[in-house]
Amino acid sequence: MNLDHIAVVGAGAWGTALANVAARAGRRVTLWARDPATATAMAVSRESRRLPGFRLDHRVTPTATLAQMADADGVLLAVPAQSLRTAAVALAPVLRAQTPVVGCAKGIERGTRKFMSEIIAECLPQAVPATLSGPGFAEDVARGLPTAVTLAAADETIARALALALGAPAFRPYHSTDVRGVEIGGAAKNVLAIAAGIVVGRALGASALAALTTRGFAELARFGRTYGARSETLTGLSGLGDLILSCVSPQSRNYSLGFALGKGRSVEEAQRDGKLVEGMFTASVLVEMANERGVDMPIATAVAAILDKRLDVDAAIDSLLTRPLRAEG
After folding, report:
1. Which of 184, 235, 259, 280 is the most exposed place for a label (fewest CB within 10 A)?
2. At what angle do helices 116-123 and 179-201 cross, to 10 degrees?
3. Active site residue 114
4. Per annotation, catalytic residue among 114, 189, 263, 309
5. What is the pTM of this model?
């Protein structure tokens, strides 16, 4: 499978980092920015304002013209989850049939309750949907620090080809055919990372953080199994691995939002830096889907209640600590 030309839709921090990843793997890369001025500035400075200090590889061509992606052998959709549908619709007229399109956002679309691969299949019926997720921060990837992720497609041959096309010594994509499992891990961990940040911001201690992370994983696993994920995916990089990273590092936007909430800031104050926090959009829909199938997710439910201003942080913590004792599982 020839994957020499990789197109990246979205010139934010993650899209820029992935563009450099593909270039380091020897691919020719076209990086699309929605704003023509942004694309021009990146072409001149060879730097993204979302990743200051990191130069674009010489094989990356910034553009604001989607038509330049018409001959792409594979596409990475590196836009936020709630914007992925708009990007896919815009890409549809120029995309060749049977082109793999990889959703790189971690979330569930509000309103439709659809995962990224489902949106790709709906808006780009001529494409081959895939997903990329796992424990990796854009800055670490841009610096070339060792990172391992999961890349999934329903067809194992395509999943393997995509992994080989993006793989480099410091960036290791493990391939899988469990698309839904990979997507569930990325979406659910964002919500649980907010809870972890709250625990640290409230100074509840390392023991509480360990308990929160462990019980959070139990929720993620219950939800995943109910929605068809494989156990090995849930305990792998895109599930447990990503959860561990996001629950301990201030580099995680979700964790940082939770930390601010734990310190007593309002939801609005916690967002003042203007950075997108995917878990804020996913929390309520994740809980809705859990309730629909009878999946017990008390931590995610508490996070959604805090974000929706139905509970304050102390009341949410109290609701968790006063739950009836039960067998572990």
Report:
1. 235
2. 140
3. no
4. 189
5. 0.96
